[in-house]
RNA sequence: GCAGGGAUGGCCGAGUGGACAAUGGCACCAGACUGUAAAUCUGGCGGCGUAAUGCCUACGAAGGUUCGAAUCCUUCUCCCUGCACCA
């Protein structure tokens, strides 16, 4: 070959096929093809935009779905443009019931970004990532410019959004700033001249507004690339930090493995497709045996964010603890027991002990757990609420299925 | 500003003077079953307490009436809806 391209560069069709995996919608797909071709010819990377909300704390597997797709774009030579929505966060995305939030200071936003960066770059390629803050342009717009922007879009079109029209029909309040929100987000696309905007399905409307606005100002409209919303560990609601049904990519291997094992079977296929790189035909084969499939899934995910060794170790530990229900001393996390919690003879009321080590929030709750035979000391169920125990180093305490540890007396 | 509606435990939502720590549903927790899946069954689900027909705190806030209030009265705060006013 006369070109200097490495032999392993995929064709446009191969690229499309790769990108399509798991994608919910690509609007429109043939425009993406054209953009990819043009980029390849011109040797110019596409600018792939993704908005990030500076109030999220951890990167979850759900968020990772979009990030992983973005990473694929990077691997194909394109450029990720992360827009930190520090200005729009102040308004609050109307998709929630969120009230107007206070303006975050630049320092706060900066601090947030730094905290998040480490997790973000577990997935993204740092060298192909650019970071923007939308307060840089939104915060500097004059009233004149705002009105000019508003003149590019009609109210009727903004009301096409389902939750807007619904609220209007139900005579629920709909505030002006809320319908302006999509315009702000859309303006971000203009500001950075996005070629593609990534997002979850919940961002469809907003992203399409960006596309239209770009057209209005004479920019080539962005392709809207949408990923499905990953269900949470409950298998019902979308994964979100506020619902507490999430798996964070920074969680330790054992936690991660356990959480994946606890998702409902019906969610497995989606997790395989969106959270792993297992080929799709193999996924179908693996799913024939649900139990083996789930362990495979958990291994795959832990491998991705930790290592194959960590995944193997996590699985072994999981098997011991939950499948065989034996807790090995070396596997149990340490419970620090303050010597002052014990009376002079070195014993403690079990009820209080359970509360003090944090396995129950109150004595009443501890009492209930004991009555319900949920408490085990060194493998023996203790159901007497008046029991006293004599904690010693390496004593194994287990409460319910998930709370367990090994005593270490300190102080 | 006017008129009407509302504020109850994590959420939804009953309750209009005592038997209400407050029906019911959801969520959650525990046990059984199992693959820590799903489904199902059982129990639990403010705190303190060895226990009690026990004590404390709780039904937006503060007072009041009463032997007794989530329930009645007064004031206040907040939210919602409609109308008006202003531009």
What does this structure look like?
- The protein has 18 helices and 13 strands.
- By secondary structure, it is α/β, with parallel strands linked by helices.
- The radius of gyration is 26 Å and the shape is elongated.
- It binds one RNA strand of 87 nucleotides through helix 15, helix 16 and helix 18.
What is the number of helical segments per DSSP (H or I, 4+ residues)? 18
**pLDDT averaged over residues:** 86
Record field, number of beta strands: 13
Assembly context of the chains: single chain
Q: Please estimate the helix content.
A: 40-55%
Distance between the termini: 72 Å
Assess the beta-strand content as a share of residues.
5-15%
Strand order of the largest sheet: 1-6-5-2-3-4
Rounded Rg: 26 Å
- Provide the low-confidence segments as ranges: 95-100
Q: Structural class of the helix and strand makeup? A: alpha/beta
Largest sheet: 6 strands, mixed
Shape: elongated
Q: Secondary structure elements and their pairing?
A:
Blueprint lengths: L11 H9 L4 E3 L1 H14 L4 E6 L8 H15 L3 E6 L3 H4 L14 H15 L8 E5 L1 H4 L4 H8 L4 H4 L3 H8 L6 H17 L3 E5 L3 H13 L6 E5 L25 H9 L6 H8 L4 H7 L3 H16 L2 H16 L10 E5 L9 E2 H7 L6 H9 L3 E3 L2 E2 L6 E2 L6 E4 L3 E8 L1
Parallel strand pairs: 2-3, 2-5, 3-4, 5-6, 7-13
Antiparallel strand pairs: 1-6, 8-11, 9-10, 9-12, 12-13
The protein binds one RNA strand of 87 nucleotides through helix 15, helix 16 and helix 18.
